[in-house]
Structures are given as C-alpha cells and as structure tokens.
Specification:
It contains 14 helices and 15 strands. The protein is α/β, with parallel strands linked by helices and 470 residues long. Helix 2 packs antiparallel against helix 3, helix 7 runs antiparallel to helix 14 and helix 10 packs across helix 11.
C-alpha cells in the first residue's frame, strides 16, 4: 500500500469511487505512515485513529450500496491546530489551550467532512500561527521531510510536512501573511491562498476585522486544490464577508488557457533573493514563455509593507486574545506578548500612515493588473532555514529586516489577491523552491489554470522525500 501514499487526493478519490481502493485500507496505510515517520517530523500533534477507521468503514459501506459520499470520499486529511474539529483539542500551539476541546467543527472542516473526507488528526502550528516556522512550547519543533535540520515553514508547517512526507494527501491551512504559501514552498507542495472571503472563516467568538486571514489547502496537485475549493467555498452567515460560490473550479481547469500577458518581478523592486532561488524562479517564469505566453520583467517597485502588515496582524491577534493575555500573560510566548503590547500602544496617526500604505499597495497592483493578466514572483527569497529558527538575518551578504525573509507573501494578504505557489525546482542544497502566481481579485480560476499549465509542463508529483521509518 505504500505506493498509494504519494498519489494525489483526486487520483485516490477516483480509485475509491471505482472501488479499486478501500477507504479502510487507505486510512490504515496513512496511520501506519504516521506511526513510522511522525516521530522524526512532528507534523501531527493529535490523532483520532479509531474514529477515522469507523468513518472509513461507513464510507466503504455506502459505496458498496451505490451511494456517492462526495468528491473526497474516504480521503484521509489533517487539520491545522488553529481550526476546530469537534471532540478534538484546538490548542493553537499554546500552553493555556492544551485542554481546549472543540465543541463544533469549523465551517471549512464541516464542509470537507460532508464531502467524504476523513479527519485523522491535528497538525502542528507555531503558537497562534505567529511565525513563518513551526515551533511551540506545547509540542516542540516540526521538521522538513526534505531535510530534518530545516523547517517546513509556517504557520501551516505541520500540514505541509504531513503532505510532503506521505502521511496524508491533503491538509487544511490558513494564511494571514503567507502561512499556506511559505510551507508549501519550503516543503514542495501545492498551496493556494484564495481571495479574501472565498472560504468562510469561523464560527467566531469575535469577528475578524483586518481582512488578512484566509483558508486553503496544502496538497499534492493543482487538481486537488480545485476540488478543495469546490467543496469549501461559498457564503456562510457566520462570516458576513464570505463570498458566493462561483463556477466550479474543477470545471474551470478543463477550459483552455488563452494567451496571457504576464509580468515577472524577480524581487518586487526591493528584496534581496538567494542566488539559486532567484535563478529557479526565473526559470519557472520562462516556462510560461515556452507555453506561448508573453512574459515581461516588471521593473517597478512595491511599497515595503512589512511594518504595516506586522501592525495589522498584531492588531487582529490582540482583538482575539485580549482576555486571554490578561489571564495567561506568563504562559504565552514573550515575542507574542511584546508585539501585542506594542500594537496596543499605537496612536491614530500610525493607523493613518498604514491606511496610506495600503492604498499605495492597492494602486500598485491596480496598475499591474491594468496591463497584465498575471504577476509572478519568487514565493520566498530563500530556501528553508533551520528548523528551530530564526529566519535569516541576511541574504547574499545583505542584512535584511526580519520580515523580508518572507517579503513576497504578506503583501497579497493585505491586498486580498489570490496567490499560489508551484515548485520551481531544487536549490544546490536539495531543498524545494517556489514560484508564486498572483491574479486579480476573485480570479482563483485563473491562478489554478495557470498553475495547472505549469504543472503539466514541469510535473512535480512524482518526486517526494522518502524517509526511513523510526
């Protein structure tokens, strides 16, 4: 059964629906893989093995009686530990929440379950998803399957590591500053951050207000992501800014991609990039030229949004955690407490400055998408850094502010544009690098169609890290 562990979720679904593969056998194979390699990687932090096997048997019975349990029937998945799964702990990677048992499923998890997915367990995340690498005081460090000394990224690092190592074909992620795209890039998966509001958030104790936070998949192929968005997108009253469900993304993949005018920004005008990562991104952009599209170097410069993004994300986290901070101040990570205390001290003039910066970013992207169909950038400026952190303080000998280590992801959380990462190749250290594909707002279909064209030209689903069992 080991050979099925690296198949895509969509391929596994076809095998299960054809009754060529048993959901029970697939779940058992995934659980064995978790037992074998999770001790080395620390991707899963809690499991519900017995319930998963019971659900697999129930789906097998439904299929035997001619029913269709849904597009993800019998597909084992992981859920990031910022997201509720009824009856399981939602710890947020934080000591005060170690015994916090979810009373209901999140909207996203509920929709995946209704589509037949089988939830195996929760995947590791930095405390409250606060960093771009995955480490917390509750569960420790998550490691990259390509090199155990490196990080899989964050904050959806456990989900990405689980997919890349063959534990599950699909896992949930969330992205407020790159937290899907960073681990997808570092772990060699496919990940997409949809337009803000595309997948409903919640249910909430307190509504999200900054417009940064989105949900999406960590998966093996573009087709998997299209199925995922078909299942999870669409308005829900718990999230007042959630968007109506558009046309089927799976159907959109069947449409021929017309000739496109594409801009490629090697550095967004300001950020240094590791030399071999830059070469791989440029090589990835050239794939679209080989496919007949017009690719031009964009020579403009984006505004540096690092301070604005940092203050916005800390403001949102402060609003969610104010009472928790007061009660558990000493049990929460010092960097989080310091950042939230700082943002609480900001005056109105600072927020006016941030509003001006957001407007400048919007106008920059307006001008780009007035001329081009897509924007390409490196997904990240470097390969994966040390598993314990910290992020690099310099790139190619140039000192950088800490957030420039992920300079190409968070601007598109602020702007709300859909963005995905595809594998552009491997660095001289043998680690994955990524090419980011960005489209106008509400055009996930175009991102997915472009990513599929790239995937067909440069397939990646036949090459994954193989780990020895512990």
């Amino acid at each position: 059964m080991d050979e099925v562990l690296y198949k895509s979720a969509s391929e596994l679904s076809r095998l299960i629906h054809a009754r060529s593969l048993s959901p029970v056998e697939l779940v058992q194979a995934c659980l064995r893989k978790i037992e074998e390699v999770n001790p080395s990687i620390n991707a899963f932090v809690s499991l519900q093995s017995e319930r998963a096997l019971e659900e697999a048997k129930a789906i097998a019975d439904r299929l035997a009686h001619g029913e269709d349990p849904g597009p993800f029937a019998g597909i084992p998945i992981g859920a990031k530990d910022l997201e509720d799964v009824k009856g399981m702990p939602t710890t947020y990677g934080s000591v005060p929440f170690r015994d916090n048992i979810a009373q209901q499923d999140s909207i996203q998890v509920a929709r995946l379950k209704r589509a037949g997915a089988i939830l195996l367990g929760k995947t590791n995340t930095p405390e409250f998803g606060f960093t771009g690498f995955t480490k917390n005081r509750l569960f420790g460090v998550t490691r990259n399957p390509w090199n155990l000394e490196r990080t899989p990224g964050g904050s959806s690092g456990g989900s990405a590591a689980a997919v890349a190592s063959g534990m599950v074909p699909l896992a949930t992620g969330s992205d407020a500053g790159g937290s899907i795209r960073i681990p997808a890039c570092y772990s060699g998966c496919f990940g997409i951050k949809p337009t803000y509001g595309r997948i409903p958030l919640g249910p909430f104790e307190r509504l999200n207000t900054t417009g940064l936070w989105t949900l999406g998949p960590l998966c093996r192929t573009v087709e998997d992501a299209a199925f995922y968005l078909d299942v999870t997108s669409g308005y829900h009253p718990a999230d007042p800014v959630s968007l109506p469900r558009p046309q089927s993304y799976v159907d959109a993949l069947k449409e021929e991609l017309p000739p496109l005018k594409i801009s490629f920004s090697p550095d967004m005008g300001f950020a240094p990039v590791q030399r071999d990562v830059a070469l791989l991104a440029e090589k990835g952009a050239r794939v679209f030229e080989e496919l007949g599209h017009n690719v031009e170097i964009w020579k403009g410069s984006f505004p540096d949004m690092s301070e604005t993004w940092s203050d916005l994300v800390c403001k949102e986290l402060y609003m969610q955690l104010k009472e928790v901070l007061e009660q558990y101040h000493s049990e929460i990570g010092r960097s989080i407490v310091t950042s939230l205390d700082y943002v609480n001290s900001l005056d109105l003039d600072k927020w006016v400055q941030h509003a001006k910066a957001v407007t400048a970013l919007n106008n920059t992207l307006w001008s780009i998408f007035d001329q081009y169909d897509l924007l390409l950038t490196p997904t990240l400026p470097t390969e994966a850094f040390a598993a314990q952190g910290p992020p690099p303080a310099e790139i190619e000998g140039q000192s950088i502010p800490i957030l420039w280590a992920v300079a190409f992801t968070y601007p598109f959380n602020i702007s709300g544009h859909p963005a995905a990462t595809v594998r552009s190749g491997f660095t001289s250290s043998g680690l994955p690098a990524g090419l980011q594909i960005i489209a106008p707002r509400h055009r996930e279909d175009l991102v997915l169609r472009a990513a599929l064209a790239y995937e067909k030209a440069r397939p990646w689903n036949d090459h994954w890290p193989k780990l020895d069992p512990q």
